[in-house]
Design brief:
This protein has 14 helices and 13 strands. It is an alpha/beta fold and 393 residues long. The chain has a domain of 205 residues: Rossmann fold, CATH 3.40.50.1100.
Amino acid sequence: MKSYLTHLECTACGDTRSTEGAHRTCQICGKVLYARYDLESARKELDRDSLASSLHSMWRYYELLPVHHLENVISLGEGMTPLVHARNLGAQLNCPQLYIKDESGNPTGSFKARGISAAVSKAKELGLTRLTLPSAGNAAGATAAYCARGSMEAHVFMPKDAPLSNQQECISFGAHLTLVDGLIGDAARLSREKAAQEGLFDLSTLQEPYRVEGKKTMGYELAEQLGWRTPDVIVYPTGGGTGIVGIWKAFQEMMVLGWLSQVTTRMVAVQSQGCAPIVRAFQAGADHAEPWQNADTIAAGIRVPAAIGDYLILEALRESGGTAVAVSDMEILRDVQVVASAEGIYPCPEGAATLSGLKQLLKEGVIDSSATIVLLNTGSAYKYLDVVAEPPE
């Protein structure tokens, strides 16, 4: 087995960098770097059908992930989460081909395990042993867990109102936890300061090249689970946007690999009405999203007032013919219970927001109810019991 990783490329100016050293954003324009692969060689040498006998984790796609040496992979079994045919919920909505990609079974209970596994593994390969990042909660817990697994040092910065479960898991995993009086942007500023002062490497969302590589495996899995085709619609809860751009990146890679004959998917970003910078920018036809002032939502994972990858999210939405929609916190809380009672899946608030968004788009006729629709549940409500314990009115 070998990784086909070749270089890093700026998504804005196209500058290229070697993968041998530690990089964050583009040194020329400051935008997001993507890992690039020799996909033409991979097309000739890789057989998608052989994946059936591979690892039952996201590392089954090892050749298309950025770690060159297997011994550097730090894994807790992340990925290969179920794609559940939501028949009961689909019957309620008259959507017979409704599915939920349920990420709640990942290590530490959310999809953050994917990106952190890839980023921490690559950090280990590059000789980086002291890491830091800001987080609304789940990324912090995942970083703490994977650093513990890899005998590495983790520093995490979270808003003080982050879910208690995330705070406790960071402490239990041995991370250095700092609670911040503010939002994710304030946590990011302190993380950067700590990195500069103590020589830590900062894993902030899309401010290093490898978390998105772990997240893109959701796209590979969806295609594989659907018999090497893509769904008509993916409804995705969007904060920093690593997942939505990662899935779109995966689809583009699979087209070059010949693993897909076409990409039919419309990407839909869902945000809370209390923090909807991407929705506002999409509706205005803008290429970038202005920071959202006074962000406020019970869905901590999508309370991101400003995303460095805003242009990539908007590009994925427009290239796919998709859209963006904002929903209320009341709708989100109600739909936590709707999903749970209909399908036995207990979704995090961010995951429930995808159902709220779907309902709105079905009502407006934006989405055809006969389409193959995938809702991304990014985590478990068990980590948000302090938020969802009180039933909505």
